TrEMBL record:
Entry keywords, A to Z: 4Fe-4S, Iron, Iron-sulfur, Metal-binding, Pyridine nucleotide biosynthesis, Transferase
EC number(s) recorded for this UniProt protein: 2.5.1.72
InterPro entries per UniProt: NadA, NadA_sf
Named cofactor requirement(s): [4Fe-4S] cluster
A Pfam family matched in the record: NadA
Protein name (record): Quinolinate synthase
Enzyme class: transferase
Annotated pathway: Cofactor biosynthesis; NAD(+) biosynthesis; quinolinate from iminoaspartate: step 1/1
Gene Ontology MF: a single term: transferase activity
Length: 400
């Protein structure tokens, strides 16, 4: 991996560096300032080879014994991604993870990612045991959107439809009309906008602004952000593009608008990943968590990937695009979770019922939208209005 990003070498930054660097955490008034410190302190260190081998063997054995399957996000450590794939599980973006967890027959789901991913799995499959390597693995978007304040924000605007990004707590999900992930957010908002609905969006302000610009929808935005994507720098990215004029720039829409403005491809982790095989370019500049480079390099081993800069000239670290909470997931945590049934996601049953409704709407929408696109392959760019007409013709009703 190191060779491929030689222009912007990245290393996991030191705790001190991150404390001063991630100023946005302060802007979001994350009350518990220990949260980041705690996360960085728990980031997994590489294991000796022999220990790693033994852990992997034991995890494989336990997955079979417990009728369990492992589901991983693209941002977690490479060995966890590989293990999930080798054992019949999956690696994906957050929408794909949710779909897989819901439909897979295993009794136990081992979710390597952040807490909202484990909670979504539990909400969709309450009868399954959902384990995580570390339950402290949260997300700055979730932390920056406490239920009481968010609920008040919604109560103050009762005429608006509440659309919430999946990176939130189960309580915030239960307050929403719709849940979206980055791979289906534009389509859902476009559809709601076509119905004349005004929207409350939370929590990611950058993703919200991006969707607003794409759809023209009337959206009131909660002011949260992702501490990882918020750090990408536009001017440095522009310089990097000049040096690599043949490179395609891939950007996750949680990044600031001035960074998104430089992108050739904007989208969820899965969409960015697809781009590396879809396009003939040999070089890609990647603005998202660098965990994704593992799968990108597997899929396009002869191509070059350059990490988009997160720091200006003179900084000690040129790209620090690592989510500390994702990096808390490790083999030891997986092993202990399976062995002792540690770190089990537990949610109140009434909360599950309420939080499930808007998630199911998203899954239902996603399935129908996919079908609509397949049936209309010949006509590109059919908008939300056509989808509405198609839904009515299919006797699904125009509303969800
Ligand atoms: P995706 O849905 O694109 O996988 O994004 C999840 C996430 O946390 C991005 O930071
Ligand atoms: Fe949350 Fe950002 Fe980490 Fe994704 S990368 S889990 S949005 S903090």
């Amino acid at each position: 991996m190191k060779n491929a990003i030689e222009h912007y070498p990245y290393e996991k930054p030191s705790l001190d560096f991150m404390q001063t660097y991630l100023t946005d955490a302060k802007e979001q008034q994350i009350q518990n300032s220990c949260t980041l410190q705690h996360a960085w302190a728990k980031v997994q260190q590489p294991l000796e080879q022999e220990k790693q081998r033994l852990y992997i063997e034991e995890i494989k054995q336990l997955l079979k014994e417990r009728n369990a399957v492992m589901v991983a996000h693209y941002y977690v450590e490479p060995e966890l991604q590989d293990l999930a794939l080798e054992t019949g599980g999956m690696v994906g973006d957050s929408l794909e993870m949710a779909k897989f967890c819901k439909s897979h027959p295993a009794e136990t789901l081992l979710v390597a990612g952040v807490r909202f991913m484990g909670e979504t799995a539990k909400i969709l499959s309450p009868h399954k045991t959902v384990l995580m390597p570390d339950l402290d693995a949260t997300c700055s978007l979730d932390l920056g959107c406490p239920i009481n304040e968010f609920s008040k924000f919604c109560d103050d605007h009762p005429e608006r439809t509440v659309v919430v990004y999946a990176n939130t707590s189960a309580e915030v999900k239960a307050r929403a009309d719709w849940i979206v992930t980055s791979s289906i957010a534009i389509e859902i908002v476009e559809y709601l906008h076509a119905q004349g609905q005004k929207i409350i969006w939370g929590p990611d302000r950058h993703l919200g602004s991006y969707i607003q610009a794409q759809t023209g929808a009337d959206m009131l935005l909660w002011q949260g952000s992702c501490i990882v994507h918020n750090e990408f720098k536009s001017i440095e990215l522009e310089h990097l593009k000049q040096k690599h004029s043949d490179a395609l720039v891939l950007v996750h829409p949680e990044s600031p608008a001035e960074v998104v403005a430089h992108a050739d491809v904007i989208g969820s982790t899965s969409k960015l990943l697809k781009a590396v095989t879809q396009y003939d370019n040999q070089t890609f500049i990647v603005a998202t968590d660098l965990g994704i480079l593992h799968e990108m390099q597997k899929q396009a081993p002869h191509k070059q990937f350059i990490a988009a800069p997160t720091a200006g000239n003179g900084a000690t670290c040129k790209s620090c695009a690592f989510c500390p909470w994702m990096a808390m997931n490790g083999l030891e945590g997986c092993l202990n979770a399976l062995k002792y049934q540690h770190n089990c996601i537990e949610l109140d049953s009434d909360l599950i019922i309420e939080a499930e409704k808007p998630i199911l709407k998203m899954l239902d929408f996603s399935e129908k939208y996919q079908k609509f696109n397949q049936e209309n392959k010949h006509a590109l760019n059919l908008g939300a209005q056509s989808f509405k007409v198609w839904l009515t013709e299919q006797q699904h009703g125009a509303k969800f």
